Amino acid sequence: MLLSLELFVMLVLANGSPVVVARLLHNRWDWPVDGDRLWRDGRPVFGHSKTWRGLASGVLSCLLFAAWLGLGWIFGALFGLLALLGDLLSSFIKRRAGLVSSSRALWLDQLPEALLPMLMAWYWLPLALWQAVSVAVLFAIANVVVSPLLFRLGIRKQPH
């Protein structure tokens, strides 16, 4: 149970620290991961909101938290990286579907960024598959419920 809670916190860190760091640093170091390149369809690969700064802050926050917990910094770095790769994957799919950056796509916005790192955690740690999937689904539901509140508090730029 404690491990599941720790992994849930790591998902929050991986996906929340880029938002917090963006609010703190504004436009500093906000280089887009896709270099503002367009895909064959003429749309952005990921979009301007997916930055190297966000990728680095998400990976670093998970690395530090996992090391502090005794899970190891390599596990933390990979966990954070997979969470953010899942986020990039959902952005890529949304751009191909014609959705603009920061548009809402329920479940597509939440599940890839939670399932990818949780599948690695299931493989790496003494964690049952049902626990890994449960943490991912709980994170997705929490994200849908809490994001509008963070928007009202001025932490998020979008209510989703």
TrEMBL record:
Residues passing through the membrane, by range: 58-85, 131-151
InterPro entries noted in UniProt: CarS
Swiss-Prot/TrEMBL keywords: Membrane, Transmembrane, Transmembrane helix
Protein name according to UniProt: CDP-archaeol synthase
